[in-house]
Amino acid sequence: MKPDFENKKNFFNLNNNNAIQTFNLTKKFGNRTAVNSINLAIQRGEIFALLGPNGAGKTTTIKMLCCLLKPTAGEAVIMGYDIEKEQLSVKQIINISPQETAVARNLTIMENLLLMGGVYGINKHETKTKAQELIELFGLSSRTKELAKKLSGGMQRRLNLAMALITNPQVLFLDEPTLGLDPQARKAVWIQIEKLKGNTTIFLTTHYLEEADALADHIAIIHQGKIVAQGSPAFLKESYSGKQTMMIKASGITDKIINTLKEKYPDVRKSDNQIIIQAKDLDFESIVDLMRGEGAKIKWLSMKEPSLDDVFLKLTAEEKN
Ligand SMILES: Nc1ncnc2c1ncn2[C@@H]1O[C@H](COP(=O)(O)OP(=O)(O)O)[C@@H](O)[C@H]1O
Ligand SMILES: [Mg+2]
Fold first, then answer.
1. Cα–Cα dist 117/77, whole Å
2. How far is the CA of 55 from the centre of ligand 1 (A)?
3. Beta sheet of 226-231, edge-to-edge order
4. 54 CB within 6 A, ligand 1
5. What is the pLDDT of residues 107-154, one digit of tens each?
6. Does residue 119 sit within a domain?
């Protein structure tokens, strides 16, 4: 496909305050298109989540943005630098915590951090000060002298985050930062990521929906290499699902109650002593008033807000058809 240069000019000019922008970024491996012409615009200081199932193209996108893989087509700019033409400048302002936790198992926490500083040519004194700061920040102070192999998976992941931050990156890429961690360890990593918010632009990938929902200012859902939706978590929920669910258990549910409810909410189901209503804006007080007014006795009720799961399942299912 021929690039649309006019469009591209507008895209880049209009968003020159963004930390990351891609324009039709594409990667093919032989016949397989792993990343298919994606356009992303990520603001400075925000947490952006690229959300998608396994094999969707998340790691491939990150590798291109980190200059580890050459794009087949398209372009990307990080803090104003072109990822192909200005690789050196890009590499100086980014860092990555890769999908596979990469710590030197036989070195201590401090040694791992010093090693990383050395790799990037930062002077020893400066690295040490920064390392101490990061050890504090990531709650690793009590284990500084311990070998990395003795740490739990969650702590290794936190060390990995700290290692990526030793260079003070302006843009930090986190590829599946909580992969394989138990819920408690995941929460601990989330807390650390949230602490970085504002100062560092964070691009994270995940296939955990609740992770994206909890952390991200802006989410793009990728499926089979294509971006199928993007926006804030609230926007995605509102646009692609948006339905609340109300379940009511009661005795004395009459046909009149059901018919009156159906006039306002077409999606009303009844089974035994239970009513389930799904709609965008449920006015639960008026529903309760109506039922009581008609003599029904409510025993129990619950409300469920729309979730990102609904959005994700909807979008990825539609694509497959
Ligand atoms: N080096 C490679 N050679 C061939 N195919 C690859 C290579 N890396 C990734 N792929 C394929 O590209 C697709 C996207 O992979 P990836 O970006 O790793 O997905 P994700 O990180 O979302 O799980 C998959 O179908 C994967 O098999
Ligand atoms: Mg991956």
1. 26
2. 6
3. 94-97, 171-175, 201-206, 47-51, 218-223, 226-231
4. yes
5. 999 999 999 998 888 888 999 999 998 898 888 898 888 899 999 888
6. yes
* 50 confidence band (pLDDT: 50, 70, 90): very high
Residue whose C-alpha is closest to residue 63's, from 25, 24, 119:
25
On whether residue 29 sits in a domain, the answer given is yes
For the Cβ of 58 lying below 6 angstroms from any atom of ligand 1, the answer is: yes
| CATH number of 284's domain | 3.30.70.980
Distance (Å) from CA 102 to ligand 2 centroid: 15
* Atom 14 of ligand 1, nearest CA residue: 57
Length of the chain: 321
Question: Which residues span the domain enclosing 293?
Answer: 243-305
**Domains held by the chain: number:** 2
Q: For residue 135, give the CATH number of its domain.
A: 3.40.50.300
Q: From 26, 27, 29, give the residue whose CB has the most ligand 1 atoms within 8 Å, as the site to mutate.
A: 29
- Considering the domain architecture, whether residues 47 and 149 belong to the same structural domain is answered as yes
